[in-house]
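Notes from hallway chat w/ T.B., transcribed later so I don't forget. T.B. wanted the structure written out for a chain they're using in a teaching module, and asked if we could keep both sequence and structure tokens in one place. Agreed to drop them here.
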Amino acid sequence: MKNTLLSPFANLTWEQIKPGIKAWIKTEREPSTVDVDMLGSHLRQLALDRNIEIVHTCFKFLYRVFSTLNCSWHRAYFSLVNAVQQGMVARYGKLLYLKNNFPCCHI
């Protein structure tokens, strides 16, 4: 059984999720842990479900947008990367190449 039953992202396409992420970034000074965990869980499930193209597209967008924000958002990005990599390792036994550095912080 999939882990997306309680996910607010269940049955939404990337194009439907993207505006929500933009609004989230616009309205919050710092990302809350619960929001990051929810998005991370959804992205991990995409990796487990072999939707790698969507995951890659999502991370290109997230990196581009988060790179203009402060280090609290960068830490959120790293958490999202870790969540997806867990799904990748579980499904494929390998990591997905994703940008994982920002010039201002090194985690």
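Follow-up for T.B.: The domain at 32-107 is CATH 1.20.58 (Methane Monooxygenase Hydroxylase; Chain G, domain 1). Might be a good example for the class.
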